[in-house]
Structure formats: C-alpha cells, structure tokens
Specification:
The chain is α/β, with parallel strands linked by helices. It has a single domain, classed as 3-Layer(aba) Sandwich (Rossmann fold). Helix content is about 45%, strand content about 15%. The protein has helices spanning about 35-45, 70-85, 95-110, 135-140, 140-150, 155-170, 175-190, 190-205, 225-240, 255-260, 260-275; strands at about 1-5, 10-15, 20-25, 50-55, 90-95, 115-120, 215-220, 245-250. It has an eight-stranded mixed β-sheet with strand order 1-2-4-3-5-6-7-8, sandwiched between helices. The two termini are about 35 Å apart. The relative contact order is 0.16. It comes from Natronobacterium texcoconense.
Length: about 280
C-alpha cells in the first residue's frame, strides 16, 4: 500500500492497473479496502483501480481527529483524488458507509464524476427518518458504548447484526459464511475508540437531497438486504437525474462479495455505458 500524509494522520491506499478510466472504491464501515478484492482483480486489467482504507479502518487506522464524520471522510477522498491527479470524470464506487461518502461527493460536485455505483446503499443510520427532536431519545450510542467497553468491536458488531436479523428475519450482512468471517476479521482490526468514532459518523450524517445530481448512478442491493436500507437505495436512484436500481438474488448487504461475478458484470456494463454517451 501507499501512504498519503494528512494534517492529522496518514491515509493508506492502493492503485492497480493503468487504464485511462479511474475507478475509485470506498469500503463499508469497519471493513477495509480488501472488501473490494473481487472488483480489483476483475477491473485492474482495463481500468485504473484505486482502493483506500478510510480513517479508523485497516492500515490507515487511528488518526488524531477527535470526531469522525462522513464529511471528513469525503474531504479525505477529495485529497486522494487531488494527490493522484484525478481531477475529472472518475467513477466512484461506494459500499454502505462508502456509499454515504460517494453521495456526499456527488452533493458537492453534482456533475464532476463520470458515474457512481452505490452497493448496499444507505442514506442514514438508522435507515429511517425520525421525527425532529426524537433522535437523542432513541440513540443506540449509550448501549453501544457499554457493549463496546465491555466486549470489544467484534462482539458489538455481532450484536448489531443480531438485532437487524431479529427485525428482518434475514442474514442481512451476507449469505456467505466465508464473507461474514472475513468481515468479522476486519472489524476485529478496528480499535475500540475508532469503532465508536466511525459509528458516530454514521449516526450523525444528514443525507443530502441529491436532486441536483446529474451524475449517472447505479444503486445495487442484494435480495437479502434489510428492507429499510433497500428502500433508501430506491430513493437515491429516483432522486438523482440519471439513476437506476438493481437487486441481485442470493446476496446480502455485502452484495459485491456475495455475488462478485454478477456484481462485476452489472458494474462493468454500467461503466462501459458511460463512455458510450
């Protein structure tokens, strides 16, 4: 991996391939750039593929910032694009938390990206609009902080998965036991303090409307996705000027890993369509 110095830390990233079109992949919460390995292997022969470890995750790890936010993660993405001299027409691919980062980028730059692919796309956490003023009374932070301090990130993450499964009756994260195991291993690499800062960034994000976004956008969910999350993805696809929504069978939230060939096929078709415009 390669390092990009920041004012308050170091951002680690990788570049594969030397194609003309840059594909930028932003992973989900408590994962890391390895989550995109099936896509790196598939696309690096024809494109310039960039993955990064978001603050608090993977090799980037802890930074000096007291608080994290989706806006801060997007600042880092912009810094990386500038560092790599990718000024115009990248294709941005975000998974879960990464989809929030891509949405924030599109909000800031409605027409700068060539395209956007949002996997397991979510607008907010929890994925439901609460009445004004009610958020502090239903916040999961007190319970999460207790669990995190007593049992650590993996047990805390597992309890979140159990809660969602109890509500939906589905293996929401992934239908593949090996994918779930790899995700849990990545979560275990995240320090307690960083886990909490990442969770708070998700919880505090106020999603943009995206009604002025003209960037072609593909939203992809797995058929086992939590219904409220999929509903948000459909809302994203309908909000942007040129959006579409696809559901892949036999897959969950980590749809790019559950169905890598199918995800690569629909993503590749989408990216090729951008150059045909």
């Amino acid at each position: 991996m390669t390092r990009l110095p920041l004012e308050d830390g170091t951002l680690w990233y990788e570049v594969h391939g030397d194609g003309e079109t840059p594909l930028i992949f932003v992973h989900g919460g408590w994962l890391n750039g390895r989550a995109w390995q099936p896509q790196v292997e598939h696309f690096a022969g024809d494109y310039r593929v960039v993955t990064l470890d978001v603050r608090g995750h993977g090799n980037t790890g802890a930074t000096d910032a007291d608080e994290y936010s989706i806006e801060l993660f997007t600042d880092d993405l912009e810094a990386l694009l500038s560092h790599l001299a990718i000024d115009d027409a990248p294709v941005l691919c975000g998974l879960s938390l990464g989809s929030m980062v891509v949405q924030e980028y599109l909000h800031r730059h409605p027409d700068r990206a060539a395209g956007a692919i949002l996997a397991g796309a979510v607008q907010s956490m929890p994925p439901v609009n609460l009445p004004p003023g009610l958020e502090p009374f239903v916040s999961p932070m007190p319970a999460l902080s207790t669990t995190l301090s007593m049992t650590g990130p993996q047990s805390t993450f597992r309890s979140l998965l159990y809660s969602i499964r109890a509500t939906t009756g589905q293996r929401w994260l992934s239908v593949d036991s090996s994918v779930r195991a790899a995700a849990m291993e990545a979560v275990g690499e995240v320090p307690r303090a960083e886990f909490r800062k990442v969770f708070d960034a998700l919880l505090q994000y106020d999603p943009p409307e995206l009604s002025d976004v003209t960037t072609p956008t593909l939203v992809v969910h797995g058929a086992q996705e939590a219904p409220l999350v999929e509903r948000q993805g459909r809302r994203i696809a309908s909000a942007v000027d040129d959006g579409q929504h696809l559901v892949l069978s036999e897959s969950g939230h980590l749809v790019n890993q559950d169905r890598p060939q199918a995800f690569n096929d629909v993503s590749g078709k989408f990216v090729r369509s951008l150059s045909a415009v």
